[in-house]
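From the thread on structure requests for the teaching lab: each student submitted one protein with a one-line request. Submission from student K.M.:

"Model Amino acid ABC transporter permease from Paracoccus albicereus, tokens only."
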Amino acid sequence: MDQLILQFFNVEVMAKAWPLLLRGLGMTALLCLAVIPLGLLGGLLAALASTSQSRWLRWPTVALIDLFRALPPLVLLIFVYSGLPFTGLQLPPFLAVVIAFLLNNSAYYGEIIRAGLISVPAGQSEAARSTGLTQSQTLIHVVLPQALRNVLPDLISNSVEVVKMTSLASVVSLAELLYSADMARSVTYNASPITLAALIYLILLWPVVRLMSRFQRKIAI
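Reply posted by the TA:
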């Protein structure tokens, strides 16, 4: 037990690694600030296109959503970072991570929002149009607010997954939280920085998970 504590819960090593992990946490936050809002916007556009009356717009969008949902985000990241240079396009690690995660999460957000749009009864749109609202006004002021409310727990849950997914950026040597912890581990020959990184993830995400559970129960009631 003493060896376990010394190797994984060494407070002295954690204290030395803390400044490095703090910088990594900043990069993780920056990734989330880029990927989540852009992913939501991309998901909204994908959801609208996948529910369009035009099959020429709907079918390719559905195919792309299925493609990027089926591809593991790590494979997509490696392809963007290591594959695109063969086409003459060399991306910096941060931009490659943002693009790969954006494609993946836009597909997931799009499918979630599409489910929300479908869940709104058609009578809501008909009633809104009968009051003189245009199709776009009906979508913005009537359909979309109800759709987002219906799927808000799923949107939050996917956003939590995005935060955890940022750890994959360590594969392309982007100094996010996990990469910084692994660098500290390699220097100290001690796994305590990895434990500290896990604790940081837990402290950040556990309140969100609990709030999401309460919100789901509230909606159910």
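TA comment: The two ends are 46 Å apart (CA to CA). Residues 2-220 form a domain with the MetI-like fold fold (CATH 1.10.3720.10).
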